[in-house]
Amino acid sequence: MLNKLQRIMEKVRKSNVVDKDLINEVTKEIQRILIQSDVSVTLVKELTDKIKKKAEKQELPKGVSRKEHLTKIIYNELKDILGGEEYKPRIESHDVLLVGLYGHGKTTTTSKLANYYSKRGLKTAMITTDTYRPAAYEQLQQLGQKINIKAHGHPQEKNAQKALKKALKETEEHEVRIVDSAGRDNVNKELLKEIKDIKKALQPEETFLVLSADIGQTAKDLAEKFNEEIGITGIITTKTDTSAKAGGTLTACREAEAPVAFIGTGEKIEDFKTFNAEKFVSQLLGQPDLGELLKRVKRATEETEISIEDLMKKDYNLEIFYKQLKAMNKMGSMSKILGMMGITKKIPQEDLQATQEKMQKYKYILDSMTDEELREPKKINKSRKERISKGAGVTEAEVNELIKHFNRSKKIMKRMQQGKMREMKGVMKKMKGKNLF
Ligand SMILES: Nc1nc2c(ncn2[C@@H]2O[C@H](COP(=O)(O)OP(=O)(O)O)[C@@H](O)[C@H]2O)c(=O)[nH]1
Ligand SMILES: [Mg+2]
Q1: Which of 99, 221, 307, 420 gives a 20 to 30 Å CA spacing to 30?
Q2: Quick one: average pLDDT of 336-364?
Q3: DSSP per position, 153-208
Q4: Rounded to the nearest whole angstrom, what is the distance from the C-alpha of residue 183 to the centroid of ligand 2?
């Protein structure tokens, strides 16, 4: 999945024009890659439809090229099917239970997790309840030696719950206890009963299902089954380094509404990290400057946006005034919106809008002002006005006009702030998605 997606993004980067043909080609290619990664066909179809629809829309945020726009759309949509918020590890006392099928990496992950918490200053112990496989305890002990963390186990005990209870007594003064459990080849009654018993005795804060990345879409059924039967708080996806199906596994977990907390990225103990969909997708797309690009797109969108915080600021100033004018101009007419907010008093049209020409002049004037003047226009006296008009190449009358305009706006803003805060917030929220501001 990795190299292929990078290749297709390279194509986008190198293309001269982003037209329907390219969009078609790119979405088709993404479709192929995702299906090969074992992402469900329905999901792939949904995703590529969305990408296509958004990419073909004519409107572009200012200052963003169609190429950048397309990249961002692909990035966003991929991120969306892969996962939401990044998992926040508990850096505090807690018990963790790892469950799953045989061979998925539970024991390895037990040591990885132990190392993770121990490195963050928590006194950590590992416990095995795997009384099923004879060498399980030794495996954990060996892993523990590498990281200097003791493995607790009672292999002579045939009952997993009993073995756990003994180990819990030995590890009472530890802050984090990670409990490994035995797997089976498939989810059967015996396995579920064993895990339920362990869970009852441990009462863990976290129960992670360990799933190997090579199972692809099957992850969905497993995640749902384990969640139903025993309740899990998250998933740890292992072997993301070895499998082309990692994307399928991660999206399947998302479909099962089971958040992926950590991922294993190799056999070594340090090959382990919290799962971050954003970083994962950046890597998939091989876009080293993706972060920068996204910031730029965001800035470009924000420049013509005006936030509710700005409007509600007590110290309404010239900077906000200018931003507001720009936003209002973009929207055409403000009166409808004011009407929606219940402000029906007649406000002269000129107070709400300014012509392009006027805006250009205003910009020159504002550019000639000091920061102090922008923040506190009251301080602009006659001699300052003279200086500003010279600097901006406009007449003093024009500077006066801007200040007058500003003062009128200030009054309107004050009126709006009084009592209209609530409604306005509601209206703003509704309008946000419409990209009016
Ligand atoms: N490449 C790679 N191998 C892993 C990863 N996690 C586990 N393994 C390997 O998977 C195999 C099974 O792991 P184990 O922890 O014994 O699985 P368990 O049966 O669930 O306890 C071992 O050979 C591990 O080294 C990983 O993130 N990447
Ligand atoms: Mg094991």
Answers
A1: 221
A2: 59
A3: --TT---HHHHHHHHHHHTTT-SEEEEE----SS--HHHHHHHHHHHHHH--SEEE
A4: 7
Ligand 1 proximity of 104 Cβ (cutoff 6 Å): yes
Among protein residues, the one with the nearest Cα to ligand 1's atom 7 is 105
Whether residue 153 has its Cβ less than 6 Å from ligand 1:
no
Closest atom of ligand 1 to CA, residue 271: 27
Q: How far apart are CA 372 and CA 390, in angstroms?
A: 18
Q: Which ligand is nearest to the CA of 208?
A: 1
Q: Over the stretch 101-151, which tens digit does the pLDDT of each residue have? A: 999 999 999 999 999 999 999 999 999 999 988 899 999 999 999 999 999
Is ligand 1 within 6 A of the CB of residue 132?
no
Side chain identity at residue 337, one-letter code = I
238 forms beta bridges with 212
Spacing, Cα 147 to ligand 1 middle (Å): 17
In 3-state terms, the chain is what percent helix, strand and coil (to 5)? 60, 10, 30
372 lines ligand 1 (CB under 6 A): no
Atom of ligand 1 nearest to the CA of 100: 20
Give the count of beta carbons closer than 10 Å to the beta carbon of residue 37: 25
Looking from the CA of residue 103, the nearest atom of ligand 1 is: 19
Specify the CATH number for 2-84+290-300; select among 3.40.640.10, 1.20.120.140, 1.10.287.130, 3.40.190.150. Answer: 1.20.120.140
CA–CA dist 233, 223 (Å, integer) = 10
Tens digit of each residue's pLDDT (9 = 90 or more) over 232-278: 999 999 999 888 888 899 999 999 999 999 999 999 999 999 999 88
Pick the CATH number of 307-432 from 3.40.50.10740, 1.10.260.30, 3.30.70.100, 3.40.50.10490: 1.10.260.30
Is the model's pLDDT at 291 over the cut of 80? Answer: no
Antiparallel, parallel or unpaired: β 94-99 and 206-212: parallel
Confidence label for 69 from pLDDT (cuts 50, 70 and 90): confident
- Say yes or no to pLDDT of 299 above 80: no
Is the C-beta atom of 266 inside 6 A of ligand 1?
Answer: yes
User: Which ligand 1 atom sits nearest the alpha carbon of residue 101?
Assistant: 20
- Distance CA(234)–CA(218), nearest Å, equals 16
Instruction: Check if 102 has its Cβ closer than 6 Å to any atom of ligand 1.
Output: yes
Taken in order 145, 150, 156, 159, the sign of the CA dihedral is: negative
Is residue 161 over pLDDT 70?
yes
Supply the pLDDT for residue 19: 87
Q: Please give the C-alpha separations between residue 184 and each of 101, 188, 210, in angstroms, as whole numbers.
A: 5, 8, 13
